Amino acid sequence: MELNDFLAHLNSGEAVTGGSELHQFMHKVSNEAMKITAILNEGYHTPEEIRDLFSELIGKPVDDSFGLFPPFYSDCGKNITVGKNVFINSGCHFQDQGGITIGDGALIGHNVVLATLNHDFAPQKRSTLHPAPIVIGEKVWIGANATIVPGVTVGNGAIIAAGAVVTKDVPENVIVGGVPAKIIKEIND
Questions:
Q1: What is the DSSP letter of 123?
Q2: Is the pLDDT of residue 107 over 80?
Q3: Given a cut of 90, is residue 189 above it in pLDDT?
């Protein structure tokens, strides 16, 4: 199996059956991601070295304006796309098999979790995985310890409060918070 075939399957939203060839390939990609993130998270690296390692992790170059404070964790890496002027703070966990897209100017706080996979609800199929993308709009601010689950889109300019669990799409220019996250207020320019 090739990486492009693997990503095409995941991005189609089709399930990954536990134990299948695709599932085994997923484990191979995860091991590669763990190797790169272990290097990223060990010792000090200059901003340029961090950008190089992150680019290796995701399989494409990031803009010179990209910033990240390690440690950072991903169990795939190859299905992450980031825009310009994106900053990711320390301790974040990206489960990106389903796809994570982060728009220009997004700020991601400490210990944020972006999870793009769900297990099947049926106990006999629990090892089957269901991917769904997360899309973070432009100039979004995600507060510390927030979690965003599979299939969520966060609109441009939105703020996710610290500790929120986002289970539904977030409109543009609103603040959401709580568990599950709800709109707290609109942001007026």
A1: G
A2: yes
A3: no
